[in-house]
Amino acid sequence: MKQPYIIANWKMQLSLNESLSLFGEIDEVLPEKNKANVVICPSYTALAKINEINTRKKIKLGAQNVFWEEIGAYTGEISTKMLEEVDCKYVIIGHSDRRKYFKEDDDVVHHKLKTVLDSSLVPIVCVGEDFQQRQEGKKDYTIISQVTKAFSGIDFKGNEKVIIAYEPVWVIGSGQAINAEDAEYMHEIIKQTIIDLFGVGIFEKIFKIIYGGSINAKIVKTFLVQPNIDGVLVGGASLNADKFLEIIKEANDIY
Ligand code: PGA
Q: Is 4 in the pocket of ligand 1 (CB under 6 A)?
């Protein structure tokens, strides 16, 4: 049985008080027996405070970014250790916002991935083609290249966990997702790329592939029933307790 990941990315959208109350609203209603793996990635300031009120631990915490060095004079950065201290379990790497506004490229993603795999955190590695790449028929090539550059040379032992988030860049925040069959095709490309790099055994033990980009409760089921879609990364619809809980409910109803 699939245990789909439902991961909220709150980006830089909420104040500390808004984050605490949204977390409280979601946590209060989330049933004790929940099939979905629910993860919330708030801002850094909210992460520490939410950890204090997250006593039921039904929701796991994630960060939206991390640096590749472990300690040192790196003004403005945050380390894996600092995230572990606030019981953070997941971290997003290479989100399209980071690639766009902070010029993070596949090399940066690779460095961060290596550091995260040396920690207790589970990386959520984001990949995705932009509109022009898709228009020019380069979507498969773009995804294969991003995945290969991020993962090449990593030496997996077999006990790690990795989530790859496929997010077609132009649909993020647009209100219009791509269709689920199209996403499934792209997930198969990602799966095959990882199998080519590491073999099917490592893929099955370590990897999950989730979809992100304008997910809402109305369409989430069409994605989660696809054989190679293991969950969703949710931006806009995770900023409202009712909308996010509805997505979790839809996911729970499938299985
Ligand atoms: P969206 O964001 O759901 O608002 O499209 C997804 C993301 O940026 O991860």
A: no
| Global pTM value | 0.97
Q: How many domains does the chain have?
A: 1
Catalytic annotation on 129? no
Residue 215 CA: which ligand 1 atom is closest? 3
User: What angle is formed at CA 194 by the lines to CA 165 and CA 135, rounded to 5 degrees?
Assistant: 60
State the catalytic residue, choosing from 167, 184, 187, 250: 167
For residue 156, pLDDT beyond 80: yes
pLDDT attached to residue 109: 98
Structural domain that includes position 148: 5-254
pLDDT tier at 255, thresholds 50, 70, 90:
confident
Question: What tens digit of pLDDT does each residue of 6-51 get?
Answer: 999 999 999 999 999 999 999 999 987 788 999 999 999 999 999 9
Q: Is residue 117 in contact with ligand 1, taking CB distance under 6 Å? A: no
Determine contact, residues 168/129, Cβ cutoff 8 Å. yes
Dist. CA 42 → ligand 1 center (Å): 13
The H-assigned helical ranges of the chain are 16-29, 44-53, 80-85, 96-101, 106-117, 131-135, 139-151, 180-198, 200-206, 220-224, 241-254
> What CATH number has the domain bearing residue 112?
3.20.20.70
